[in-house]
């Protein structure tokens, strides 16, 4: 509906971009431009001549009785007046007959809903349109369609593709007590089977429909035609078929991609399989791309509103126009349409033998009504994980195929405005009364409804299971999927063990192209396949400098492994162990503390779905060559919905000495993202020497109080003697840094979750001034603010603000 909203600017773009326009690569046999209601020839701003209706006797002999012509009382499209100055208004059934050559034709209908003369207001017009037996529009309102388009336009151009044998019969039928109208009719020939034979390989790839061929029993409606990454291409700059190519900005939703790349000095080479009329050079000289796989978690993504219950033809245009990637396999990516796999590992460099040369591929997909009458059709392109792989798209077209006899969508997708059609409202009320009487008086109908609901529940369960299977398939594509044999090869038969944990063993290895990786091989008995896919999903959706990057996975029967980046300096615990001399100074420890805090802040607030780690400890903080910390091993973390923070205690994990008290007893509150805050506080205390590792290792849950909350920390803070932290040989600046980190940590380990700051506030405290921090109240393992009056706590200002957030939301 919004396909031609920018048409008003086509004149200016045409004048500035191409001068006299592009050389026509295709010359149509039939070109009919009918300015309905006009009395003389007129030229539009593209210098195309529009004729009057009766020049070739297109109309019936009693045209003046069945219809009348009128001029627009108000002209709001002055930049493009033809054919919107006049209109033909129909009182009853009216049929144009155009004698044209056999073949497929473009049929474009022009509508400008406004007042015409003193007798007709097109805003209240409802009507239907048929052509050669195909219903193109039903109970259609040009006014409501224009008003609901995004962005809003003043006029509308509907484009259809119909097969014609000798005569094109175009019939307008007003709805009861209404009139119909049209401003212009355009009929244009096109190359034989241009939109019906398939892409340049003569194939229509079936994504989720039964359509792989399109015959003469099919009509199509053009919904979207986009110049991806580029500007508006007006009709005069098309390749002879006068199509309009809109920018894709309104439909593109991805971030951090290389956008609107223009290659103005490149000459496009059209191979025989892709004639020059397929798309203009402007389309193939502009594109969107990922910029290879520097961030393999990102997609190129577009969303398009469509009608449910129809099959769609999706045509994608590509042009590998970057010489620097030729011969390197640099255009390998996968295509997803409607969240389903359309094409795996498309190698664009392999398919385009001469650079730059275009190709185009066609896909068919059926869109059901499970997501409403006007669902979104999603298109995703995702690069493979090799070094030079990239995703790219130059152009896109989406066309709707007719159901038997009709291509019109559900009328309810247009929201009726007040008083737009009294007739339509009256008819609707009569239907409601009739349906109500039938429902009230028919026991058979009630039984049918019950049977239908049972069937629907079963269908929903099947679809849910199918979507779950599709999710597994998509993860296998969006991430590198290794076989178990490949994992053995990478790890050299698991010969280099670099770590062990409760859930498996970590091995060092090398990918085939050289980079080192760490491979976590999970225990065979651990969880089920769904648990593992959830783990992979949570890790694959993260991207942060302080989060370990997932590179791939293995899921083969009971064999499961995760491949992630290798970090040279291993885990943090080896640097802060009391059994070894210190190797990190105060400023380095501060930088590591801040990095871990930022990583947790990202998990809690930066992800689409909140991720709670539940096992923050030195062994799960890894350090790269520059001692930059990265949080790892959050694969079994519980994924909370965005507005849910309290999670089930089932399968809760953690390490004694770092586990928050609410994990052991609900008297301290519910388990949430605040449990990570507690673990972080205990981690920092240990980093700065304020915990006795020997006590923690020998403690139990029952006598944990002395290890968790050593009173002597508070005593030393109060008397200013912090020699227990890092010894006597530290500077004043380092001493202040250490004191600040201890204060932040003590706020984090408050026993009541509501008394702890959220991670975003923790980051602010670490980066802020020491003077702004007060010594927190001494915690007690036997007091919970959930069971005592609020005034018993002396929190800094940030805490009360977060309490309000907790009370007024579901977070």
UniProtKB/TrEMBL annotation:
Claim: DNA-binding is one of the keywords in the record: no
Segments passing through the bilayer: 432-457
Topology in the lipid bilayer: Single-pass type I membrane protein
Ligand binding (ATP): 520
Signal peptide: 1-15
Key word 4Fe-4S present: no
Start and end residues of each Protein kinase domain: 492-770
InterPro entries: ANXUR1/2-like, Kinase-like_dom_sf, Malectin-like_Carb-bd_dom, Prot_kinase_dom, Protein_kinase_ATP_BS, Ser-Thr/Tyr_kinase_cat_dom, Ser/Thr_kinase_AS
Compositionally biased residues, Basic and acidic residues: 802-811
GO MF entries: ATP binding; protein serine/threonine kinase activity; transmembrane receptor protein tyrosine kinase activity
Main location, first listed in the record: membrane
Subcellular compartments: Membrane
Record-linked SUPFAM superfamilies: Protein kinase-like (PK-like)
Sorted UniProt keywords: ATP-binding, Glycoprotein, Kinase, Membrane, Nucleotide-binding, Serine/threonine-protein kinase, Signal, Transferase, Transmembrane, Transmembrane helix
PROSITE patterns: PROTEIN_KINASE_ATP (PS00107), PROTEIN_KINASE_DOM (PS50011), PROTEIN_KINASE_ST (PS00108)
Recorded superkingdom: Eukaryota
A GO cellular component annotation in the UniProt record: membrane
Span list, region Disordered: 792-811
Full protein name: Protein kinase domain-containing protein
Organism expressing this protein natively: Brassica campestris
């Amino acid at each position: 509906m919004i396909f031609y909203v920018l048409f008003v600017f086509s004149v200016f773009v045409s004048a500035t971009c191409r001068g006299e326009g592009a050389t026509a690569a295709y010359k149509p046999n039939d070109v009919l431009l009918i300015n309905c209601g006009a009395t003389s020839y007129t030229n539009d701003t593209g210098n195309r001549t529009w004729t009057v209706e009766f020049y070739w006797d297109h109309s019936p002999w009693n045209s003046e009785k069945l219809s009348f012509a009128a001029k627009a009382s108000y002209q709001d499209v002055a930049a493009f007046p033809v054919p919107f100055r006049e209109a033909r208004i129909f009182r009853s059934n009216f049929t144009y007959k155009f004698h044209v050559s056999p073949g497929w034709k473009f049929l474009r209908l022009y509508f400008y809903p406004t007042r015409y003369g003193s007798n007709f207001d097109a805003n209240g017009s409802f009507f239907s349109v048929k052509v050669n037996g195909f219903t193109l529009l039903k109970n259609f309102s040009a006014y409501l369609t224009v008003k609901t388009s995004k962005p809003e336009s003043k006029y509308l151009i509907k484009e259809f593709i119909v097969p014609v044998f000798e005569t094109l019969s175009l019939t307008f039928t007003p709805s009861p007590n209404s009139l119909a109208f049209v401003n212009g009719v355009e009929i244009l020939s096109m190359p034989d089977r241009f939109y019906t034979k398939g892409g340049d390989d003569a194939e229509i790839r079936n994504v989720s429909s039964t359509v792989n061929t399109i015959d003469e029993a099919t009509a199509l409606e053009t919904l979207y035609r986009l110049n991806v990454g580029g500007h508006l291409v007006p009709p005069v700059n098309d390749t002879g078929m006068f199509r309009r190519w809109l920018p894709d900005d309104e439909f593109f939703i991805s971030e951090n991609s290389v956008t609107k790349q223009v290659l103005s000095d490149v000459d496009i080479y059209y191979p025989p399989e892709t004639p020059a009329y397929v798309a203009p050079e402007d389309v193939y000289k502009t594109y969107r791309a990922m910029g290879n796989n520097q961030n393999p978690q990102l997609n190129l993504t577009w969303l398009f509103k469509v009608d449910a219950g129809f099959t769609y033809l999706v045509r994608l245009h590509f042009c590998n126009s970057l010489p620097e990637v030729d011969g390197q396999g640099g255009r390998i990516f996968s295509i997803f349409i409607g969240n389903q796999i359309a094409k795996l590992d498309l190698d664009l460099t392999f398919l385009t033998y001469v650079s730059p040369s275009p190709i185009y591929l066609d896909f068919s997909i059926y869109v059901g009504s499970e997501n409403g009458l006007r669902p979104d059709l999603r298109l995703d392109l995702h690069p493979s994980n090799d070094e030079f792989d990239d995703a790219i798209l130059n152009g896109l077209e989406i066309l709707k195929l007719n159901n038997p006899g009709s291509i019109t969508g559900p009328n309810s997708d247009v929201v009726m405005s007040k008083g737009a059609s009294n007739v339509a409202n009256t008819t609707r009320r009569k239907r409601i009364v009739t349906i109500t009487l039938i429902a009230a008086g028919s026991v058979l109908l009630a039984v049918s409804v019950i049977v239908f609901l049972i069937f629907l529940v079963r269908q929903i369960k099947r679809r849910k299971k199918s979507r779950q299977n599709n999710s597994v398939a998509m993860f296998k594509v969006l991430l590198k999927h290794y076989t178990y044999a490949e994992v053995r090869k990478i790890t050299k038969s698991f010969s280099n063990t670099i770590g062990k944990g409760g859930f498996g063993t970590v091995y060092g290895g090398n990918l085939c192209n050289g980079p080192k990786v760490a491979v976590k091989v999970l225990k065979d008995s651990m969880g089920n396949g769904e648990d593992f896919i959830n783990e992979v999903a949570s890790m694959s959706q993260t991207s942060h400098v302080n989060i370990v990057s997932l590179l791939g996975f293995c899921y083969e029967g009971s064999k499961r492994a995760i491949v992630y980046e290798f970090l040279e300096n291993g885990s943090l615990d080896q640097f802060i162990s009391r059994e070894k001399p210190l190797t990190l100074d105060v400023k380095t420890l501060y930088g590591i503390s801040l990095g871990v805090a930022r990583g947790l802040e990202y998990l809690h607030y930066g992800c689409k779905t909140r991720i709670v780690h539940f096992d923050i400890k030195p062994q799960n903080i890894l350090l790269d060559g520059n001692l930059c910390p990265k949080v790892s091993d959050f694969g079994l973390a519980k994924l909370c919905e965005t507005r849910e923070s309290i999670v089930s205690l089932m399968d809760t994990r953690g390490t004694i000495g770092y586990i928050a008290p609410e994990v052991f007893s609900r008297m301290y509150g519910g388990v949430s993202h605040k449990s990570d805050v507690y673990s972080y506080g205990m981690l920092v205390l240990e980093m700065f020497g304020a915990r006795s590792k020997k006590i923690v290792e020998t403690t139990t849950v029952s006598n944990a109080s002395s290890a968790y909350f050593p009173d002597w920390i508070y005593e030393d803070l109060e008397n200013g003697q912090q020699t227990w932290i890092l010894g006597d040989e530290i500077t004043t600046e380092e001493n202040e840094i250490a004191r600040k980190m201890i204060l932040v940590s003590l706020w984090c380990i408050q026993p009541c979750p509501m008394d702890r700051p959220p991670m975003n506030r923790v980051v602010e405290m670490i980066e802020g001034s020491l003077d702004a921090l007060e010594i927190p109240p001494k915690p007690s393992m036997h007091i919970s603010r959930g069971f005592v009056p609020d005034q018993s706590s002396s929190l800094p200002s940030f805490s009360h603000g977060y309490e309000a957030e907790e009370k007024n939301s579901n977070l």
